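Protein modeling request. Please complete all fields; requests missing the sequence field cannot be processed.
Requester role: graduate student
Desired output: 3D structure, C-alpha cell encoding
Chains: 1
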Amino acid sequence: MSDVVINRRLPPGPLEYLRRWPIQLCLVAVALFLYVPLISLMVFSFNDTKSNVVFHAFSLKYYEKAFTDDSLVTALGNSLTIATVSSIISVVIGAMAAIVLWRFRFPGKTAFDGGLAIPIVVPEICMGVAMLVFFAKICPWPTNLPWPFNMGAIIISHVSFSFPFVTVVVRSRLASFNRELEEAAKDLGAGELRALLDVVVPHIRPSLIAGALLAFTLSLDDFVITFFTAGPDTLTFPVKVYSMVRFSVTPEVNAASTILIVITVLLTFVALRFQGKSALTAGHGVPDHT
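Delivered output (290 residues):
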C-alpha cells in the first residue's frame, strides 16, 4: 500500500504573527479612512434634525422629502435613462472592439489598442473639457450648426469613456476561448456570423453582463464630464446633488447621496460577481474531449 501524504497547514509561529499584524493594521486604517465618511453620511441621512454633528433621533422624513422632490426625481430619471442607453451602446462597441483585437491582425493594431486605454487613464476633467470643445467647436463643422448640450451629448460623452472598460473585461474573457470550437462550428456548416452568435457570444456572456453593469455604474456616478456637456434643461442626479450641496449639507442631501451610494454599491457588487464567475470559468478552461 502506498503511503498517503497529507498536507496540513502548520499553525503560525510568533515571527509570522509579528509580520502579519502591521499589514492587518494598515488594512484596517485604509478601510476606516475610506468608509467612515460614507457611513457617517448614511447615518446622518436618518437624523431628525438638520444637524450633521449630533444625531438627535431616527427619522425617514428627509427620504420622503427626497422622493417627493420633483426636480430630484426628474434628475434621477435622467441619470437612469442616460446610464441605460450609454451602457447598451458601450457593450456593443466594447464587445466589437474586443473581438476585433482578439481575432484580427491589422496595421496600427498596437496604436489602436493603446488608444483604447486613453479614456481610462486620462483625468475626467480633461475628458470633460475635450468633450466641451468637441461639441462646441469641432462637431458643428462644416454646417456651423451648434450641437445642443442635451441628453444626446451626455450619452455620447459617457460612451466615449465607458466602452474601453467593457473592452478590457470582454478581452480577459476571450483569452480563455478555445478557437477549435469555432472552427468545429464552421466545419459543420455555420457561417461567420452564426459561429460568432452561437459559440463566441455564449462564452463571453458573463463578461458582457459585467461590462454592462460596470458601464452603467460609471455613467450613473459621473459628474465631471456631465457637468461640461449638460445643458440648462438637462439635469442629472450627481449634478443635482452638487447643486444642493452648494447651499448647505442637509439630511436631504445626505439622503439623496445615500440613494446614489446604495444603487452604485449594488450594481458594482453584481458586476464583480459576474466578472468573478467569468474569471473562474475562464480559469478552468474548456475541456478537451478529443
